[in-house]
Specification:
Helix content is 29%, strand content 21%. It is α+β, with helices and mostly antiparallel strands. It has a domain of 47 residues.
Length: 76
């Protein structure tokens, strides 16, 4: 099975942190963007494998269904 998951990549304190919104925002990081994305690929595969073993159904994102990243100004 091949599925596309949206991943948020965020530079933070000299590393790249990733989040996967479709999988309860699971997160990992890497020293480079490429390393972070490879670790994220492994994280997603492991998440799916464990969900199958536990009998948990996960919602695989539908093609064309996209999250939106918005900058929101807030006055405090």
């Amino acid at each position: 099975m091949t599925a596309n998951f949206q991943v948020i990549v965020e530079p933070e304190d000299g590393v790249f942190v990733t989040y996967v919104p479709a999988l309860d925002f699971v997160s990992t990081y890497g020293a480079t963007r490429e390393e972070a994305l490879e670790r994220t690929r492994e994280l997603i595969a492991g998440y799916i494998e464990m969900a199958r073993k536990e009998g948990v159904t996960i919602g695989v994102p539908e093609t064309g269904q996209r999250a939106e990243l918005v900058d929101l100004a807030v006055s405090a």
